[in-house]
Amino acid sequence: MVTQSVTGQRPRARDLGIPFAGTPGPINAITDVKGLEVGYTTLISGDGEKAVRTGVTAILPQGKDFRGRLFAAWHTLNGNGEMTGTTWIDESGGLGSPVMITNTHSVGIVRDAVIEWGNKKFKGEGYSGDFSLPVVAETWDGFLNDINGFHVRKEHVFQALDSAKTGAIAEGNVGGGTGMISHGFKAGTGTASRVIANAGYTVGVLVQANYGSRQLFSVAGVPVGQEITDLVPEPGKRTAAVSPLWKPLDEGAGSIIVVVATDAPLLPHQLDRLVKRVSLGVGVVGGRGENSSGDIFIAFSTANATEFSKASGVANIQMLPNERINPLFWAVAQATEEAIMNALVAAETMTGHNGNKVHALPHDRLKAVMKKYNRLSESQK
Fold first, then answer.
1. Domain contains 3
2. In angstroms, what CA-CA distances link 64 with 35, 68, 130?
């Protein structure tokens, strides 16, 4: 197995002149939320029947040494997917583990590896409702990846966790997003952030995008999917013999996992409201929570961590009034939209399992369509 290192930074949607609402953070990434770290293991090797195009993404809400708990909530737009650990989030209102994303058939090994990693790092603590019940989510990469080869191993999970860092992060064909497809184009991992004006709060989003039909694909209000109708996923000879049509292209099958982080002091019931607004951002780009799609989202707040983790006495919790929460709702929808587009813009054309091929969204044609509808930013006209 070859573990591919990620070097350089691919273009982002704003670089192409795509207009987005809201004010991004300094990095325009989920890591704009202070203390949050992201790590990847990207696995690309072989071709034909044994082509490996997969990986693992690790989101550590407060870094590798954090042993506290954060208020959290989760939501499913459509549940043909998996996110472990959510029962305890519902029950406790909190998150005390990393959030991991991988392919559908690697959820078990990733879950077990997180438990082992936590046990080695925090020795002697025994059972924990957090690290013993970690959050692991998935999307299906079987068109490009030999998903039944079970190529993700525990050392790959350890690598993603141990390599997690703050600052700018790679997008596109990286981590758990390596083999993913959206709206019939190559997609994968994307991220974005928003700063709430006059409040000082940040909302960050990371997506693993693997969903959506071509016909509904929309960019800043422009029906790009109806303008670029070619460059569809191409099945190799063996795949074509089994299934001549790639069903998700027309029907919107697939999945999307979205992780939302904020430093605003929100309680679980407010985070529940916040995480539901992810659906609005997905919908703007063209997702409709189709029947065979797994659209599952999680949100957490890094505020109140010390008080939430207190073992005795009375916790003194801060809460943003509901009357001030609307800008956060807007920020989540805006950052989700841009993170999806960043995944699509950064992704590169990939050939994988059985010779199946998925094309990248062509930057020049995207810009031409946006110009046709007078939606390019002034700097790109």
1. no
2. 10, 11, 14
The CATH number given to whatever domain includes residue 204 is 3.60.70.12
The residues with which 75 forms a beta bridge, in sequence order, are 297
What DSSP letter does each residue of 278-322 carry, written as one string?
HHHHHHHHT----TTEEEEEEEEE-TTHHHHT-SSS--------G
Number of domains in the chain: 1
On whether residue 7 sits in a domain, the answer given is no
How many degrees, rounded to 5, is the angle at CA 253 between CA 252 and CA 255? 110
Determine which one of 97, 193, 255, 301 is catalytic: 255
Residue 255 located in a structural domain: yes
Exactly one of 106, 263, 295, 301 is catalytic; which is it?
Answer: 295
Return the structure tokens found at 223. Answer: 């029906």
Q: How confident is the model at residue 294 (pLDDT cuts 50, 70, 90)?
A: very high
* pLDDT category of residue 228 using cuts at 50, 70 and 90: very high
Give residue-wise pLDDT tens across range 350-372: 999 999 999 999 999 999 999 99
CA distance between the termini of the chain? 45
Residue whose tokens read 């929309």: 218
Residue 288 belongs to what domain range? 12-309+317-373
Name the catalytic one among 106, 213, 279, 293.
293
Digit-coded pLDDT (tens) for 190-215: 999 999 988 899 999 999 999 999 99
- Residue 32 appears among annotated catalytic residues: no
pLDDT the model gives residue 22: 97
Residue 309 annotated among the catalytic residues of the structure = no
Question: Listing from the earlier edge strand, what are the strands of the sheet with 135-139?
Answer: 3-4, 37-45, 52-60, 99-103, 135-139
Determine, yes or no, domain membership for 216.
yes
- Angstrom distance (rounded) from CA 185 to CA 362: 9
146 is catalytic: no
